[in-house]
């Protein structure tokens, strides 16, 4: 841990900063993990002085920090670290205020780590980095954090990466995907590589297929302007879902740290079978939510939420991906994500093949394949579905049972939020859980042909009622292969 740190949040009054970043820093400070001389500097257009900013942050902490973790002394300690700088990012004359604050340090705080978190539109990334370079505040101890998605296609991703890379070395750039900071995602690596009984069957010989689901019950909300230019493919599939796929499919790294993990994820992305137009038509489904009921309450359609939409933006994607390598040849990976679904859930389901020989041909009860459910949210944990004999005399009656691991119940402690882990890794300079430039561009290389085909097609996203599991075509996508989506309560 460095002895001193300046954590600068561009967009410091925005939703991400107040709802996620500052509560995460508070919770780490509560645990005594922030360097004693840490300063947190919010940068925005808002005409706030330090005291007004601290009042806004206190309200945000009260709203977003778990009740049992709200400690007045710890809140006061974090607020004392807070500063606000009003800044027009595009006006060079305004930057002297930030420069003066960054240069004002305790004489004992030599070479503080400076973290620049870009919680703003990516169109500003290059401008902000250029200004920081001109101020002379980018040194070997500086880091920059970029929120996803990086670009909206391969060309724009390269432009963003070039602009930031012109100032910061690749080792100083942290492209954040908060899903990679979740406890259950981290535990996936441990489950695979620290338990000898799983790795021998983690391949095409024993696994039938893999499903990855990220479903939200909420609509686009106040993000409609952004979302209508992105859609579910850019917002979720290109980053979150492909990163989860990589962790499921990657080969064992030499050591689960730093570049080893990222090298193996890149190999998976490069092994994804490219889709031609016919593949896109056959193996992808787009949807958009219509009016419906969520938790018993009526909710509007996407068209109501985003009146300016031209009706071509997808709020739902389901697709079939294939990893063309020795381990996974012939194993489909089914990915789906959507808004206004029947529930909020993120999970990975690994479905194993049926036993090669039916030893109990005259048994009663269900014959189901083994499944490993990895729950990412809302309740992190794992569940292994197995088949057991139901107790009783006479013949054999088979019954599905499950072995459950709930992190909250097993470890009896608060699970850190993903941003808590990721922000501390940035401060420490550990890039393991962040995307490298070549990963981002490899993901865009695979996604881009799908986007091009959709743009050229006269078809529009298929409507599905809010509060359901998505369009019927998504179910058909699996039914053609003799499979079905595994819902979280199955």
UniProtKB/TrEMBL annotation:
The active site is at residue 240. Substrate binds at residues 178, 182, 216, 235, 339. GO terms for cellular component: cytosol. Pathway: Carbohydrate degradation; pentose phosphate pathway; D-ribulose 5-phosphate from D-glucose 6-phosphate (oxidative stage): step 1/3. It is an enzyme of class 1 (oxidoreductase). It catalyses: D-glucose 6-phosphate + NADP(+) = 6-phospho-D-glucono-1,5-lactone + NADPH + H(+). Residues 189-486 form the Glucose-6-phosphate dehydrogenase C-terminal domain. Coiled coil: none annotated. HAMAP family: G6PD. This is Glucose-6-phosphate 1-dehydrogenase. Keywords: Carbohydrate metabolism, Glucose metabolism, NADP, Oxidoreductase. Residues 8-187 form the Glucose-6-phosphate dehydrogenase NAD-binding domain. PANTHER family: GLUCOSE-6-PHOSPHATE 1-DEHYDROGENASE, GLUCOSE-6-PHOSPHATE 1-DEHYDROGENASE G6PD. Signal peptide: none annotated. Its EC number is 1.1.1.49. It holds the Pfam family G6PD_N. NADP(+) binds at residues 88-89, 148. Catalyzes the oxidation of glucose 6-phosphate to 6-phosphogluconolactone. GO terms for molecular function: glucose-6-phosphate dehydrogenase activity; NADP binding. Belongs to the glucose-6-phosphate dehydrogenase family.
């Amino acid at each position: 841990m460095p002895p001193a740190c300046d954590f600068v949040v561009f967009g410091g009054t925005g939703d991400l900063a107040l709802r996620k970043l500052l509560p995460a820093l508070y919770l780490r400070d509560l645990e005594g993990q922030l360097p004693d001389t840490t300063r947190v500097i919010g940068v925005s257009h808002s005409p706030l002085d330090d005291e007004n900013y601290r009042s806004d942050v206190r309200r945000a902490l009260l709203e977003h920090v778990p009740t049992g973790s709200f400690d007045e002394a710890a809140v006061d300690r974090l607020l004392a670290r807070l500063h606000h700088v009003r800044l027009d990012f595009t006006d060079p004359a305004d930057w002297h205020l930030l420069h003066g604050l960054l240069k004002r340090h305790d004489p004992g705080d030599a070479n503080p780590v400076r973290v620049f978190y870009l919680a703003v539109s990516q169109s500003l990334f290059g401008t902000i980095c250029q200004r920081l370079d001109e101020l002379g505040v980018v040194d070997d101890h500086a880091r920059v954090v970029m929120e996803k998605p990086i670009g909206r296609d391969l060309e724009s991703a390269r432009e963003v990466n070039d602009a930031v890379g012109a100032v910061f070395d690749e080792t100083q750039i942290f492209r954040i995907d908060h899903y990679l900071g979740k406890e259950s995602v981290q535990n996936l690596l441990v489950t695979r590589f620290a338990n000898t009984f799983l790795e021998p069957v983690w391949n095409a010989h024993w696994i039938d297929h893999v499903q990855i689901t990220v479903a939200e019950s909420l609509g686009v909300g106040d993000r409609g302007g952004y979302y209508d230019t992105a859609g579910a493919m850019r917002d979720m599939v290109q980053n979150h879902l492909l990163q989860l796929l990589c962790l499921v499919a990657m080969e064992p790294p030499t050591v689960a740290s730093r570049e080893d993990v990222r090298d193996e994820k890149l190999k998976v992305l490069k092994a994804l079978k490219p889709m031609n137009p016919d593949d896109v038509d056959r193996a992808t489904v787009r949807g958009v939510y219509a009016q419906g009921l969520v938790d018993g309450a009526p909710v509007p359609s996407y068209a109501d939420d985003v009146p300016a939409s031209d009706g071509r933006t997808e709020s739902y994607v389901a697709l079939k991906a294939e990893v063309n390598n020795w381990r996974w040849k012939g194993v489909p990976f089914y990915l789906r994500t959507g808004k206004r679904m029947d529930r909020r859930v993120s999970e990975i389901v690994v479905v194993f093949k049926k036993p090669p020989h039916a030893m109990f041909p005259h048994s009663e009860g269900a014959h189901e394949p083994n499944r490993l459910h990895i729950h990412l949210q809302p309740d992190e944990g794992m569940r292994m579905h197995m088949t057991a004999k139901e107790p009783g005399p006479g013949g054999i009656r088979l019954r599905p049972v499950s072995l459950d691991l709930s992190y909250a119940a097993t470890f009896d402690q608060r699970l850190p939020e993903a941003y808590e882990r990721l922000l501390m890794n940035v401060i420490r300079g550990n890039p393991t859980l962040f995307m490298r430039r070549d990963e981002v561009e490899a993901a865009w290389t695979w996604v881009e042909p799908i986007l091009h085909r959709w743009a050229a097609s006269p078809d529009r996203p298929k409507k599905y009622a809010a509060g359901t599991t998505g369009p019927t075509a998504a179910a058909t996508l699996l039914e053609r292969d003799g499979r079905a989506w595994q819902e979280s309560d199955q």
